Amino acid sequence: MVPRPSNKYPIGSKPLGLVNLGNTCFMNSALQCLIHVAPLTNFFLDGFARVHTSDDHHDSYNPFDTCGEMTGAYADLIWNMQRSDRIDSDYIHSFKPIRMKETIGYFVPSFATSDQQDAQEFITFLLDVIHDELKEKNKPDQNTIIQQLFFGTLISKVTCLKCNHVKSTTNRIVFLPISLNHQQRLFVVNFLTKDGIQDRTSVNVAANGRVENLVQQFLELNDLSHLFNQIIVIEAKSEEQLQFETPLRRLFEDEVTLIEQDHYISRFQSNRFDEELDNLRLEECLQGFVSLEKLEDIWVCQQNTCQQATLVSKQLQFKSLPHVVIIQLKRFSYTNSFRRKLDTFVDYPIDGLDLSELLLSSSSSKKENAIYDLIAVSNHIGSIHGGHYTAYARQDPSMDEWYEFDDSYVSTIYSKQKIVSKYAYLLFYIKRTK
């Protein structure tokens, strides 16, 4: 007889790892984070407990198979990860999520390949499909467990600064995307050809960007791409010979010179710089998400007095926050033909994140508890072209016992400093209960 899993959280004294089935570390990291969302896990365990206490079903019966393929596959994963004969075994340390891999690959062919995928896209699709499948089984006026835990309501308010007309739209949101490019830095670029012709251009780029972003912006403003087929040299003091990957924070001056190569240009002297200049705090990033933003010529006001593209202000605020807030640190940057990963360190709190400032002042949720605690982190280590996903998670937000999940390998984290790193990609916060 298969031992019944407990429907009480935490999940056990020895969490299981997930076997990598071929570049599925993105899936394993995402699943470990979701497994440690206690209310979600308990929802499925309670479903198993109800049917297994009856004589009508065998202990291996999965009651969620009747909901849909994806819900059944995820429930099967939870059941196998929670079985007491596994978590109490001295020989079983991991589980192969074969059914999950096959099922999501059936829905999304790209997930069926051995190519590396995005953990955020995986979670988005998984939650959406489980929500849709459960909704079909529920009563029309009954919210699904996905709605109850992960759905928030975001209000976008656009105000015409000419006639003060306001247009508000309401959207459902699961992820809170946070840009890591808040601050801009103005550079004056001097372009000097070997014929002695000089041209000056002002270029705005992200302060924590790299030289490649500066050059790309310069080329967009000047039709000079034919001159850059062989070499680009930027006259600036740096730690090493200046390359495209050099962070802009290592440039002393806000003025640089691009020189068309004619003869050998010597290396510059090496200097040391403070690595913390481009660090960010999560609270500051969140303020940037809801701060008032002025935009020009991107919105056509429909009022009779305007009827034209005009200067507007835009502000985002939450009408309601979800019980589980998933924050996406947007580390993957796509600008024209350039793709790169931002390694900016973001300092985020493990306990006591106050999100009340994200709520509308008139929202009833403003008066409610908006304090959140971190329960899991999905990490991405490496470059945009190749990397590895791991996860950090704790069994209970009231406990300090954290684990690191690296596919099949699970280890205890003894220093909380490790949890906050430059590799963090997805942060899972759960609302603190009174």
Summarize the structure.
This protein has 434 residues and is of the alpha+beta class.
Any idea what the CATH superfamily of the domain at 1-151 is called?
Cysteine proteinases
- What about the largest sheet? 8 strands, mixed
| Class from secondary-structure proportions | alpha+beta
CATH architecture of the domain at 1-151: Alpha-Beta Complex
Enzyme class: hydrolase
Domain USP: 16-432
InterPro entries: Papain-like_cys_pep_sf, Peptidase_C19_UCH, Ub_carboxyl-term_hydrolase, USP, USP_CS
GO biological process, one term: protein deubiquitination
Give short descriptive properties of this protein.
434 residues, alpha+beta, Ubiquitin-like (UB roll), four-stranded antiparallel β-sheet, 10 helices, single chain, Cathepsin B, Chain A, disordered N terminus, eight-stranded mixed β-sheet
Write up this protein:
Strands 5, 13, 17, 18, 19, 20, 21 and 22 form an eight-stranded mixed beta sheet that branches. By secondary structure, this protein is of the alpha+beta class. A hairpin with an 8-residue loop joins β11 (293-300) and β12 (309-320). α2 (38-52) crosses α3 (69-82). The radius of gyration is 26 Å and the shape is globular. The protein is built from ten helices and 22 strands. The model is unreliable at 1-12, 238-244 and 261-277 (pLDDT under 50). Helices cover 24% and strands 30% of the residues. Among the domains are: 1-151, Alpha-Beta Complex (Cathepsin B, Chain A); 155-168 and 280-312, no CATH class; 184-259, Roll (Ubiquitin-like (UB roll)).
